[in-house]
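Sequence of Leucine-rich repeat and WD repeat-containing protein 1 (Ceyx cyanopectus).
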Amino acid sequence: MSKITTELLLERAVPRSTRLRKIETLNLSKLQLKTGDLDPRLFSRLRHLQKLDLSDNLLDKFPSSLTLPDLRVLNCNNNKLEDVTALKQFPLLEELSYENNVYLTLNDDYKVMFLLENLRLLNGKDITKLANHVRKVNSQKLTSKVTAHWEKFFRDQLPEKHTAEQAQSIKEKFLKSVQTNVVYGPSSLSEFTRWRVKMIAEEFLSYSLGLELNTDPEPEENMDENEEESEESPREAAEDVSQVTVRPSKRRRNHSKSGSGKKRSKSQANTEEEAEDVSAEPLHFLQCHSKGNSREDFKTQLWSCVFEPLLDCGGRKDPIVSSSRTVATCGGESVCLIDCETGTVLKKYKVATEEFFSVAWTTLTMVINDSRKKSHNILAAAGRRGIVKLIHVASDFCYGEIKAHKKPIATVCFSPARETHLFTASYDKRIALWDIGIPDCDYNFKASQLLVLEALSVPLRIALVPTCPEQYLLAGCEGGCFAWNIKLEKDKKGRPFEALFQFPDADGGVTTSHRVDGLAFLNDDVIVSKSSKPGCIYLWSWSWSFDTKAKGCQRTVAAVILAELEWSTTDLSYLTLSTCPAKGYVFCGDETGSVWMYHLPHYSTAWSPAKGKRSDKRIPPTQILKWPELRANGEELTEILVNNVVSDPTFTYLVVLTSVNITAIWKKS
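Predicted 3D structure, token representation.
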């Protein structure tokens, strides 16, 4: 059992404290502590800790995820430390002392000077000038030498058209050679030089030449990852939310404006009188994803939002009868949980080195301490680093991560049929299926990869077929719309696509090569997909389209188009769509901050479309919610793109995510 408890931390705080989050100075010296006693889960609650004394203990290393985002002063004198690279997790560290750790050398001093950009004092000495030399001059010299070594000895060995095996062989030879032959500075710093040369060489191969260092489907642990995670309480999270004001003249009912100043079609003119008016009021405009909590941040892009599912209490709840008003949003370095009615940021989770692109919910039945089972909502969040974070929201705790891909993850989603099955779609042109397992009472869990779907281009949006979610998955990709058979079978972990769908093009023909940046099911059979060029939204039938494939056994099939939704003429990409199946709605934002809404409760495959051809049926929006006039710091916000818009299952709330770091929440009257 760990020597460190909550009670001990509160007692050793200077001065004594009643809450972990209030502790700024902590003395844990002379406790005979070992590395295993430093529990990351407990230390993650010390989010305001600035000074930590761990001197006169038995530490041989630091855990790689202590999560002390505000740590400025660290004393670990008189321990048994063997390595200092894990200190990179404390980027704000200004004063560091590790005297009388017999295994540490001058090479370690240089490593921490390079890793910790804010470090001023090391073992009581001012190292500002030397550290600047190490980070700049030393790095420039070594970079020049590494580049010259490649140009002289290895550049001509890599053919212009090379195989993966050839590239891997050259990379391994280069890394070994460059560490042996590149020399700089005194021999006493040879270990530090080799460490930096390897780092620079890896960066050179990856960024300058586009050569990845590992090609295995599952990346290895990177122990030097600079990661700062934190969770914030409702009060603390609320302090980070900047106020964006709406001019009173704009806070009124937003009536149907299907025309929106654009060219009107015959179908629009004929149906305009019949179009319903969905009265909606803008409730809140929040700026809660700012980088570094800056009130001047109007650049952070917001990408994904999902409403929290209701926990079952004995029986399964109908989402139409009772729906959660809590939504998870992500963008930049943070994930937020927001109460849509009050506009309160309930919780906030940050990773300083991450940019989150997607979030997804699942409900797991977990065993709690008294051996009773209880349902808990788990949030998965992923983004640029290719890592999936698993967050137990009720406990305000990120209990684990899955290193899913080496490149960014564009989107994630859980299977509705199996609560532990998570799909991750990545810029490595793969879609992976994971079993995330169920954590025990100590949050131990085991994740495993079940399936890898090979795509021809980057997958942007994924959707499981509602009638057979364990058999077929669709993906909208940079190069088209694809379908895979995902039925789990032994010895068939990797899968090519099973069907590629053709759509009408601007010239009256058909094409498979187009960016599909919006994809969702409106009901069990009707798919809504958006192609960025030309800017159009199609309704099409899964069963009729895939039935064509089954009859002919061909891989390329024509999507059976049911209708086209009239939308903005913009050719901007990644303005995605969503659906509210229970209410029969489709939502899509545009380049002016407006939200286009289509009410399609009765549309199905009962229509008789011309297969593979552009349908004559064009449906205007039921309503367009116009972006109100917003002012931040006295200036009007302009050039607002709506990246995503999602409603809760009952269509009570509509959450709009923008390109200017504003989350807008509308409420249906």
